[in-house]
Design goal:
The structure is a homodimer.
Chain A lengths: L1 E5 H12 L13 E7 L2 E7 L3 E8 L1 E4 L1 E6 H10 L4 E7 L4 E6 L2 E6 L17 E3 L1 H12 L13 E7 L11 E7 L3 E8 L13 E7 H11 L6 E6 L4 E5 L3 E6 L18 E6 H15 L5 E7 L7 E9 L3 E13 L2 E6 H10 L4 E6 L6 E5 L2 E8 L5
Antiparallel strand pairs in A: 1-5, 1-7, 2-3, 2-6, 3-4, 4-17, 7-8, 8-9, 10-15, 11-12, 11-14, 12-13, 13-25, 15-16, 16-17, 18-21, 18-23, 19-20, 19-22, 20-21, 23-24, 24-25
Helix pairs in contact in A: 1-2, 3-4, 5-6
């Protein structure tokens, strides 16, 4: 291998692929990154066997070939080098990577790339997705997935396809993404730019469960991406792949049956409030200080307007040790007056996931699931359980 | 107490005074801040009994008085409020602080301010110091103080005054600051704008040892200060005080005898190098990646120039696991060729403390203390022990 690549390009590639590299592993080669010189480009890859991230960056390749080297020290060292061309050469007798940059000369110990796991190429027909739409969908859904592994299925995001049941604007072709942790549920419909041939047949359906952590990594890499992303399911390997213009992410799927989330979404309401997302978020942030000792509980009183008076949302949190705080926010309140309590962390999470200026809450009783909507955006639905006080 | 103060001002005061508040304390009142309304201003103070930080901020005071409230929740809550006037009122029957800001209404549980430690006023004659000079001196000296408590005296900074032995530019009145941790020593002379009357008598001397952690806090508060700072020693209380325009820091002194640091400073050299501070720092940063498994050791070869050839500093670090790296930097090398090794962390520390573009190292043998100077700045001297390899 004999490659010349710019320092900033190499630094970026190592930072992207490095996110899949475990800090410890029983197999030493897994703490390495794979460097593979192909005609005109350098491939940099990392994997923990569940998740793999592969990037390709433009490089001057005089001689193809590869090596693996410890990921963290290499990334740290390359980021400390001056922004000049870096010359990489492999000595195969000792599996040493020679790194020359300006007046720096370095020999780094590596391993034979043959010992590295084989990462399949992501060729083939997939769902083409707009990168910005997909990034937003990931942000709006993954936060509702479970963080603990008690029920592994809930650490995943359901991605479902039903030909002819798009659900997106005007019933266009769309994927449905859903995540739930037992206390809350996020559902998002994501337009499909182009469906693969196999999925385009009438009545064609499928669903997979992708680890939320995988999708968060995909979301991170999507920042700044301008080309459509291709999502493909590798059925034989029980894997899902995401192909970007200069990177690919490959991940194991989670096996099992995702809960019937449609049944959880409330179909009617007795009280509905439309409120400024920013004002409510700021109030939650301030009140959270007083909510710590009471399991993050905040109480809301939803008071419909009368005559010229606007409706109001009164928020209150109380700590036996610190005291109590309350704030009133003008809002459009329809239906019955209602008092209800929430985990303030859950409220803040969904308010951060929504992009619009106005958010709607649809409620029936203080003990029933609450529907949260982004006003004017039918593609997103959230459900959150109130707290019982 | 009945006070109106702007949210941003109150937030800043709580953040400054809060740095002296311990997160846990056997005496509950110590985890509180003291709020004391005085004519035209609100005093906010925190202390852990070793260190006290007091700030005064402009406020509309309708009724003087005071209270103490838990420092962390109050600071966190105030920082979450909108930037509007905050109205503070104390209910003495229950020692409750009422906080009203916009539509927020809060009652926070506090304690009688009589239970709070008495913090003496810092009135009287002190050393007047330029705030920017003092901040720089603190940065250049405190990093060399010991972090561990094995020898408590070394966690302090010696501040010494000898009338007529200024040591500063032109022998003007100056304080000497020194800190050492057994491996390195930093000495700085700091001009005095005005000495107190008692210290102005011929032959007058004194020295105190101030905790380095105290000086770091003073340095933090000094950012943005434009007025001279007054340093005064409260002999009867074994304390030192620093009076700024809107804040004061009060600290216990460390008792004991500071090592004779003058004896440690080398008086002559066999090899002297002048080198770009930035180039050397960057090289240290890159080489540090390979120095982790060898106690952070980097080797330097100092090679004098010959004829038209400039001198060079060759740096090298080697890890039995990762490999090795080397870099050459052009430099002005006088005297004998020398090979020597340093803890790269110590090199980076002193390079970060120096402000000038060029740094000089004066050496005799690979085992002798090395003098480090900022070229063109006689007010700073550093000594670092080489590593024995």
């Amino acid at each position: 291998m004999d490659v010349t690549i710019s320092q900033s390009t190499f630094e970026r590639a190592l930072s992207v692929a490095g996110r899949a590299v475990p800090s410890r592993a029983t197999l030493p080669t897994l703490t390495h990154v794979l460097l593979q010189a192909e005609p005109g480009r350098l491939k940099v890859a990392g994997t923990d066997l569940n998740l793999a991230i592969i990037t390709w960056e433009e490089a001057l390749v005089s001689e193809p070939g590869g090596i693996t080297v410890p990921a963290k020290p290499l990334a740290e060292f390359i980021s400390a080098l001056p922004d000049e061309p870096i010359h990489l050469r492999v000595h195969r007798e000792t599996w040493t990577l020679q790194i020359v940059c300006g007046s720096y000369e370095t020999a780094m110990k590596g391993l034979d790339p043959e010992e590295y796991p084989i990462l399949p190429d992501l060729e083939g027909d997939g769902f083409a997705l707009d990168p910005e739409d997909f990034r937003l969908a990931i942000d709006q859904v993954t936060f509702a997935a479970a963080a603990d592994e008690t029920r592994p299925i809930l650490t995943g995001v359901l991605i479902r396809w039903e030909e002819g049941h798009g659900g997106g604007a005007g019933g266009a072709a769309a994927l449905t993404l859903a995540a739930a942790d037992g206390y809350r549920l996020s559902v998002k419909t994501l337009p499909v730019l182009r469906a693969p041939v196999a999925a385009s047949e009438p009545g064609s359906t499928f669903s997979v469960i992708v680890p939320a952590s995988t999708l968060k990594e995909v979301g991170r890499i999507l920042k700044g991406e301008t080309e459509p992303v291709s999502m493909m399911v590798l059925r034989g390997r029980n894997q899902v792949g995401f192909r970007l213009s200069r990177a690919a992410v490959l991940s194991q799927l989670i096996e099992g049956q995702f809960p019937d989330f449609q049944a959880i979404i409330p179909k009617r309401w007795e009280t509905r409030v439309e409120i400024s997302r920013e004002a409510l978020w700021k109030a939650c942030k301030a009140l959270s200080v007083f909510a710590r000792e009471t399991s993050n509980a905040v109480r809301l009183a939803l008071i419909p307007g009368e005559g010229d008076q606007p409706g109001q949302v009164l928020l209150q949190s109380r700590s036996p040790e610190k005291g109590e705080t309350r704030v009133a926010i003008d809002a459009l309140v329809e239906g019955n007056r209602l008092e209800i309590a929430f985990n303030v962390r859950f409220l803040m999470d969904v308010l951060e996931a929504i992009e619009g200026d106005w958010v709607a809450f649809e409620m029936t009783t203080p003990q029933s699931p609450v529907k949260v909507l982004s006003v004017g955006d039918p593609s997103f639905v959230h459900v959150v359980m109130p707290m019982f006080l």
